[in-house]
Design a protein that fits this description.
Elements (H helix, E strand, L loop, with lengths): L1 E6 L15 H8 L5 E6 L5 H10 L4 E5 L6 H14 L4 E5 L1 H5 L11 E3 L6 H7 L12 E5 L2 E2 L26 H4 L9 E2 L10 H4 L5 E2 L2 H14 L1 H15 L4
Length: about 250
């Protein structure tokens, strides 16, 4: 099966820097190693290149990551564009905003909504996207004619062992556009604090999941191979700041 994972374009109203790798999409891609997956970053692409990808790449499933509210309108426009190119494409959405406000995507151009962490539900869905609505996958909300179908609530029982190393080979073409030799590191999900201005802990359903030390070190060894100078400086700085002063 061919899966196209899209990161939405940068909004003209955004004031915070956002030229970082689409880590969530890289992780999701690693959960389905037996399928053809391509990451398409609309921050560095355009509608013409997307049209070409849809027509000649012929994806079976197209997924959008929508973490921030400021990305919603752009994502909805993209979904409309995708369905106009080929209505047979299965469209799916996920991310922090989608989890907290799924009703924003109750529309005919969306087929499936992923709520919460998708490392387990996404590969289950990809295994049989045509019949998944009858399987009731936890954390997956199916949409029909713009209206939600019954689903099983996400229980957030994911373990750190189920989170694979991101497939960064799929975003190699965008490294120059990102403009710096950096790699995002995911060390935890959720947050133990309850700041009223932050949605992180709410999107994680009050659950905090810490990554195992062995997995973190495995990630570090990978980064050192790619960015030896830069990442080593970060490690040294971290160790220096962590040394207690007597």
């Amino acid at each position: 099966m061919k899966i196209l994972l899209i990161y939405p374009p940068q909004s003209a109203e955004a004031i915070a820097p956002s030229n970082f790798e689409p880590l969530a999409l890289e992780i999701l891609a690693s959960t389905i190693p037996d399928h053809y997956v391509k990451i398409f970053d609309m921050r560095f692409e355009n509608l013409s290149s997307l049209k070409y990808e849809l027509n000649f790449g012929t994806p079976d499933v197209v997924g959008l990551s929508v973490n921030n509210t400021i990305q919603v309108n752009q994502a909805l426009k993209l979904l409309d564009f995708i369905k106009k190119q080929d209505s047979r494409i299965k469209t799916i959405v996920g991310g922090i905003h989608v989890t907290l406000s799924p009703h924003d995507f109750f529309c005919p151009t969306v087929d499936t909504i992923f709520l919460g962490w998708a490392e387990r539900s996404f590969p289950q869905y990809i295994a049989s996207p045509e019949s998944s609505e009858f399987n009731l996958i936890p954390g997956v909300l199916f949409i029909k004619n713009g209206q939600p179908i019954e689903h099983i609530k996400q229980f957030y029982d994911l373990t750190s062992d189920e989170i694979p190393i991101p497939n960064r080979s799929l975003t190699k073409k965008y490294r120059n556009e990102i403009g710096r030799k950096t790699a995002l590191v995911s060390t935890a999900r959720g947050c133990p604090y309850r700041c009223i201005f932050c949605a992180c802990w709410k999107a994680a359903n009050d659950i905090t999941l810490f990554e195992k030390q062995s997995i973190f070190l495995k990630n570090c060894s990978y980064y050192l191979k790619i960015f030896p100078k830069y990442f080593l400086q970060m490690i040294i700085l971290f160790m220096t700041l962590s040394v207690p002063i007597n």
